[in-house]
Amino acid sequence: MGWSRKHAVYGERYNPEKHRRPVPGSRPDRDAGETSGIADNTRELAFAAVLVLVGIAALYPALHHRGSSLSSEIKAAKSTPLNMKNWVNFTLLESHRVAHNTRIFRFELDPKASLGLQPISHILVRGEVVNRRGRLEKITRSYVPVSDLGATGYFDLLIKILPDGMLSQRIARLNPGDSLEMRGPVVELPYKANMKTHLGMIAGDIGITHMVQLIKAIVLNPNDYTQVSLIYENESPEDILLKEELDKLSRAYPNFKVFYTVNIAGREWEGGVGHITAEMIYKALPHPSPNTLVLVAGPSTFMDRVCGRKDQERYSGQVLGLLKQLGYKKEHVYKF
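^ thats the sequence. predicted structure below, dont judge the formating
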């Protein structure tokens, strides 16, 4: 279903009172713990690995698999330069700025090698920094590669350079030829081609990394017919990350559509203005049903507004915010 057709179906004006209850077609609330993922990047790897196993077991019953050609699905390579047990050094090839505080860092692989990731996965990155007590310390964060999963010879990390981000500041000082320790991958959402007929995506700021990885996996697979609709919120048009690439994918693949909204818009801006609203979601994304799933990723305050944060056990938990107003339940939503 294309963007224009979706508006024809969902295009009636949003009425908060009418749509406060679950949309017809949604199913009763399921037992807790059906969707899970890894959010805390500073935990021990062993704990993270356990959570991944628990997440896969908990999520699988909630996702409806329609079946697909095994030969066409993106799977982790049998031989990958990444290692879950040991840290591996990867050399920086180059970096370039995509926003005033965000850069893409390209790391080297053997010419015929790829990371061998399956969507949606992140990798752990470790670097030595000087902590607030003036002592050397190795800290770890997770980043989602945004290059094509089948790309050979390199992989890209999109990283926001935060003023108080000790590791991101350390990475920003890397020069071509310098190396960085990494290990993984860690699967956050085990995706199978055609497991849903329509995926909705809501991203804020750097949360786009999760979405881009999966969008590419879907549209570049000729046997995956999943419809994907993305709403992407940023502060200004200049802050929209990977916009050129997203627009190119939207033009090239009819099963992917994107809608942007910004808080500060210029005269020539043609997208949405302001924070994401219930009406935007209602018009642009699939309604809750057994054949749809909405993925959400972004900063904490963004998550509070849209769907609520993950609970303390790191499961997606109850749906709050805008998605609750529109009748989505926990089986309809996955939080990163």
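Residues 45-59 form the longest helix (15 residues).
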